[in-house]
Design brief:
Membrane topology: Multi-pass membrane protein
Number of strands: 2
Low-confidence stretches: none
Protein name: O-antigen ligase-related domain-containing protein
Subcellular location: Membrane
Domain O-antigen ligase-related: 229-367
Oligomer: single chain
Largest sheet: 2 strands, antiparallel
Distance between the termini: 48 Å
Shape: globular
Radius of gyration: 21 Å
Number of helices: 17
Strand order of the largest sheet: 1-2
Keywords: Membrane, Transmembrane, Transmembrane helix
Length: 425
């Protein structure tokens, strides 16, 4: 595609961001799916989203460089475990570029999935005094989620823009939205839905008298947007037929109910009764087979995980390297019940994915980051409730998929620690 329209857009985006930094941040999070708009600058491939990230980072660094020392010291002092985990994680990802089978592809993944989201996190941390988390970051994410959900619902009734492999082929009829495959829709929407639920919960909760940090009109816009996403988002995931996404939402909402004293025990009771019903009611056998990996999709995942573990036994320290899993897994790839299946780009488990991509050091760093965030949640730093439910959804969904290895998902992940460290309560 011609690069000229993108250059015009970047000029306007730069002017907007320079004039009002929060507007640029708003547009960036609103347009997260624009990583799908790809072009090249000479030999360097890039995307519209990456261009916006670099513009926000450069402008933010120029405008807020004076806050670097203070922000870094505060981050390390109050979120030590998370900071140490982050350093290990980034060191490991850098090493994994040079253990990869294709240096160019690995460098591109390193830049898009690890370095750019982290740099964006840092710049927004430096600019925390000029940003409103809910109005400048969460609101555009809600709006982006609404747009994605509306497209999913439209596709469900029309099949418009859905690849044949997910529509008429085998009568699967799964929506894909902008992304081209169903699970991407669920991975993007699931954490946003539980954040929306937490925002609505806080608005009505008598125990949570939180200062929203925004005006009355902005409060209502955030609240209404969250409510609309709560209505549309679950439908989109149902139409995408993503069991992992639905279970992740249930886990996040369940955590929200458990954290509230008034709903804690009744939610636990409902959870136990639901589990017993799932295990014992014959008519639920289809759901039971899917949840316990007894259907074809589950068998493929079990086989994929077993193959991945065999690979890691031979490469326990370095893993496969960035962008190298689908090539290095070939000697270990097996059939499923005698049926040959395709080789995927990652093993559909967030922890195995991090292990094969970044090695043992990267996995350790990633786990320390998550544990560090839970420590900060326990101390009720920042918007701890929103982060808690989203992180639970991320982990539960990550048991059967990889809700990080995509441009928009990696940026979305780094929003979670940003919400913890930009407001100390």
């Amino acid at each position: 595609m011609m690069i000229f329209p993108y250059l015009i857009y970047f000029i306007f985006f730069t002017l907007i961001t320079w004039q009002r930094f929060s507007y640029g941040v708003f547009l960036l999070f609103l347009l997260l799916p624009t990583y799908l708009l790809r072009f090249s600058i000479g030999p360097l491939p890039t995307t519209v989203l990456e261009g916006m990230i670099w513009i926000v980072c450069i402008v933010g660094l120029i405008k807020h460089a004076r806050h670097i020392e203070e922000s870094v010291i505060t981050l390390f002092r109050k979120h030590t475990l998370f900071t140490v985990g982050t350093l290990l994680f980034l060191i490991a990802t850098t090493i994994s570029v040079f253990t990869a089978t294709d240096l160019r592809a690995a460098a591109g993944e390193w830049k898009a999935f690890y370095i750019e989201p982290f740099l964006l996190f840092l710049i927004l941390l430096f600019a925390k005094d000029t940003l409103k988390i809910k109005a400048d970051i969460l609101l555009p994410l809600m709006l982006s989620g609404i747009a994605t959900s509306l497209l999913a619902i439209y596709q469900h009734f029309t099949g418009w823009m859905v690849p044949w492999a997910f529509w008429g082929n085998g009568a699967s009829y799964r929506v894909t939205t902008w992304y081209g495959y169903p699970n991407a829709t669920a991975l993007f929407l699931a954490p946003l839905i539980v954040i929306a639920m937490a925002l609505v919960w806080q608005r009505f909760s008598r125990e949570e008298k939180e200062d929203w940090g925004v005006g009355h009109v902005e409060q209502m816009i955030v609240f209404v947007s969250s409510g609309v996403l709560l209505l549309l988002g679950p439908l989109a995931i149902v139409y995408a037929k993503s069991t992992g996404g639905l279970i992740g939402i249930v886990a996040g909402v369940g955590m929200l109910l458990i954290l509230n004293k008034k709903t804690r025990w009744i939610s636990i009771a409902i959870g136990v009764i639901s589990l017993l019903g799932l295990l014992s009611i014959p008519s639920l056998h289809i759901i039971r087979e899917e949840v316990f990996f007894q259907d074809r999709s589950g068998q493929i995942r079990l086989s994929m995980w077993q193959d991945t573990l065999h690979l890691l036994q031979d490469r326990p320290l370095l893993g496969a390297g960035l962008a190298s899993y689908d090539e290095r897994i070939v000697p270990y790839h097996t059939t499923v019940n005698g049926e040959g299946v395709e080789i995927f780009h990652h093993p559909h488990n967030i922890f195995l994915t991090m292990y094969v991509n970044t090695g043992l050091l990267g996995l350790i760093g990633f786990v320390l980051m998550i544990i560090g965030m839970f420590f900060s949640i326990g101390k009720r730093y920042g918007y701890w409730l929103l982060v808690c439910v989203a992180l639970v959804t991320f982990i539960v969904t990550g048991l059967v998929d990889s809700p990080y290895i995509k441009n928009d998902l990696s940026v979305l992940f780094w929003v979670l620690p940003l919400m913890l460290v930009t407001r100390q309560e």
